[in-house]
Amino acid sequence: MSNDLPTLSLLEARVLGVLVEKQLTVPDTYPLTLNSLVAGCNQKTSRDPIMHITEADAQMTLDALRGRSLVIESSGASGRVMRYEHNIGKVLKLPPAMVALLTVLMLRGPQTPGELRSGCDRLHRFADISALEACLEDMAAPPGGGMVARLAKQPGSREHRYAHLLCGPVPVQPAATSGAIENEGVTLGEIAALKANLAQVRGEVEQLRQLVEHLYTELGVMRRS
């Protein structure tokens, strides 16, 4: 395992993730043409975030990755269309299991071990969830620094989520609370109390309206008599 981890842009991570994914899921079309790579990057399923990149964006990213030996260029069997393949396993000296986990994290964002096992199903088969979690722990704390980080549990979740660190440290996001909605210090209980008070006020206003109508009616009867 290499200790010299690259720092990737979000688009570089997406391109590498797509190349690994397509190599393992549709090997007949691999290495990928530029057009196929763009389509894979812009997929609306199994992607987070959703992207809308152009061929120019993809080509510039591929050129940058080739300069770091993370992507290899080939002319393909026909010799007419340029194709591209990843080299991430060799550059980072990673076994297939770790490449698969990184790929899912690069394509789908932070995931729980259960989500990772489902997402990795076509890329690498883990014997069980314990084997996957052991692999994540190895990736989180190798001698030269982690490739993944374990995030805080989300409210109501039984599992921690993991995120890759190839694009740098993961921004810490405040967890939403399940028992209270923070809005300038107002909690859910306070909002409920305000609604109850408002309902009471509306009821009292309605009673006053009915009383006024009754008084007008009485005054009209008195005037007529």
Briefly summarize what is shown:
With 225 residues, the chain is mainly alpha-helical.
Structural key phrases:
Arc Repressor Mutant, subunit A, mainly alpha, three-stranded antiparallel beta sheet, 8 helices, two-stranded antiparallel ribbon, 5 strands, 225 residues
Helix percent band: 40-55%
The profile of the biggest β sheet is: 3 strands, antiparallel
Query: So what's the overall shape?
Result: elongated
In angstroms, what separates the terminal alpha carbons? 103 Å
User: How many separate domains make up the residues?
Assistant: 2
CATH superfamily annotation of the largest domain: Winged helix-like DNA-binding domain superfamily/Winged helix DNA-binding domain
Q: Return the average pLDDT rounded to an integer.
A: 84
Question: Uncertain spans, ≥5 residues at pLDDT below 50?
Answer: 175-190
**CATH fold category name of the largest domain:** Arc Repressor Mutant, subunit A
Count of runs of 4 or more consecutive helical residues: 8
Number of strands: 5
Which structural class fits the helix and strand makeup?
mainly alpha
Tell me which CATH architecture of the largest domain applies here.
Orthogonal Bundle
Strand portion: 5-15%
What is the CATH first-level class name of the largest domain? Mainly Alpha
| Helix-strand topology string | HEHHEEHHHHEEH
